[in-house]
Design brief:
The structure is a homodimer of 295-residue chains. By secondary structure, chain A is of the alpha/beta class. Chain A has two domains: 87 residues, Leucine Dehydrogenase, chain A, domain 1 (Rossmann fold), CATH 3.40.50.10860; 134 residues, Rossmann fold (3-Layer(aba) Sandwich). Chain A has a six-stranded parallel β-sheet with strand order 1-11-8-7-5-6, with helices on one face. In chain A, strand 2, helix 2 and strand 3 form a beta-alpha-beta unit. In chain A, helix 1 packs parallel to helix 10, helix 2 packs across helix 10 and helix 6 packs across helix 7. Chain A is globular and about 60 Å long. Chain A starts with 5 loop residues before the first strand and ends with a helix. The relative contact order of chain A is 0.17. Strand 6 of chain A pairs antiparallel with strand 6 of chain B.
Chain lengths: 295, 295
């Protein structure tokens, strides 16, 4: 008999993380600079725009100052690097996020590598990634932290058990694999990707699937092992059949097809998304506490 | 009927890599500084001692200058960092290797992070590891390069197919997993380790196993899928039954037990070892060519 698939909501986990942030912020003594986040981006609309608006809203709800560092429409890459160098050396700024991906001639890696690792709250600089590999992370990409927090909250990564990460991007899949492999979490991790010859057999036998491909309906009964849980990190836009001209956010899992088959799925939207924003604020508050010596 | 297990020797692959190095070295024009490798270590015997002697021998056979930078028996960590800073800024030195692991109070990460990424020919600094994650490596740990070179030479990593890496060290297992996942190699990679609950099922169905645990007889017919190939990166010392008081180098695979079961195994010694030293020389020659602008 088919058992209903659990919907793993992220909102309450995000709220809990946000309360931790608020509690740490409240410990600031006199003379401590207010926690400040700077967002560097080009003034164009795109996927980063939505993420940025959410960051701003969450930051302001927590009392974090949000500095919108939009580049002018005519800025070249030299102006970008100079802007980041200036934020890097500004003691009133505790964390900096750089729009990703950036089109040419902007070099994202060169840009974030201008940041000291303490201010790279997105965890994507060369030093941040290198520290993650050698188990000495300062900041880890918020989306990877969010996926692991949800999975742990629901008991989906028992030590030593097999999990799958689908997607090998340096921004999501690979940092996530490292977090899952860390001592203390100890997952046995299979990393699959767009060139995987046989996804079904690659993930056969895994308990939990972390999917971060951005390919709607990638996961269904044909490839998900029966009873597996899915942490759905994919995010795509598709036309909304109910509202012509509007679009819907969808994940990698075909939730309707997997109902009664998967043990549990994080919904999109409402699963990994809200926890990611909360984790990013957590990274900023950690950066602030470290730089302002708030313990 | 059992088919004989192929012995994947490394020596001819090492010789080919060494010929490439010699050809590149021969392109040096007048005024180019001779390729120079510095080895920083404590004057004690241990596993690094054997590796260092092999480096020295291979370097000298190629005409690479080998600088033995032994610390004094009483050196503290400040002396170590100062020594490395001095080599980092010395234009006559093209690559530096630091003994690993280093005991406390020496901080290996802090030491190698004094090197510019171009001179970190062992590929273990924070920047080197971070660049590897984001697919922009300068130097990759020689042992990982060696394992992949052997596997490719024998056609053991068809794109998209499943392989396993057993071991999650920052020095071997994790860099190796990244190399295997790189675009162009495109393996589907399962990373198992000491806390893996069920190794047999975790690696069931994989074509090729890269084992870097250092646990003699870890792999036998009970856990290796029939017909799998094994790249044996493990290295342990065991007493030699034929010569009391002497020891033998052995890998992770029980080669006798796997005869007629595994498709192929790299022997220990004589498999990954010689190729690793050749790859390290390759890294040094690449570093020299880059710094001396030899193309």
């Amino acid at each position: 008999m088919a058992v209903a698939t659990a919907r793993l909501e992220g909102r309450s986990i995000a709220e809990e993380r946000t309360r931790e942030c608020a509690a740490l912020l409240a410990r600031a003594g006199p003379g401590v600079r207010p926690a400040t986040l700077a967002s560097v981006h080009r003034p164009v609309s795109g996927p980063f725009e939505l993420y940025r608006r959410r960051q701003q809203k969450s930051a302001e709800a927590l009392g974090i100052r949000f500095r919108d560092e939009a580049l002018s429409g005519t800025s070249g890459d030299a102006e970008l690097y100079e802007r980041i160098r200036s934020l890097a050396s500004d003691p009133t700024v505790h964390g900096v996020i750089v729009e990703h991906p950036l089109p040419a001639p902007f070099d994202f890696h060169r840009a974030v590598d201008e940041l000291p690792v303490e201010k790279d709250i997105d965890g994507l600089s060369t030093s941040s990634l290198g520290r993650l590999v050698s188990s000495r992370p300062i900041h880890v990409p918020a989306v990877a932290r969010a996926a692991v927090r949800i999975a742990r909250h629901y008991g989906l990564v028992p030590p030593g058990e097999r999990v799958a990460v689908i997607g090998r991007s340096e921004t999501v899949g690979l940092p996530l694999a490292h977090l899952l492999l860390e001592r203390g979490t100890d997952a046995t991790v299979t990393i699959a990707h767009s060139k995987t010859a046989d996804l079904t057999s690659a993930i056969s036998g895994v308990r939990t699937i972390f999917s971060c491909v951005g390919h709607p309906q990638l996961l269904d009964r044909s490839n998900v092992p029966r009873g597996a849980a899915i942490i759905d990190i994919g995010l795509s836009s598709t036309p909304d059949p109910a509202r012509p001209g509007r679009s819907l956010s969808v994940g990698d899992a075909d939730a309707a097809a997997l109902e009664g088959w998967a043990r549990a799925i994080t919904p999109v939207p409402g699963g990994v998304g809200p926890v990611t924003v909360a984790e990013l604020m957590g990274n900023l508050i950690d950066a602030w506490a470290r730089q302002e010596r708030v313990a």
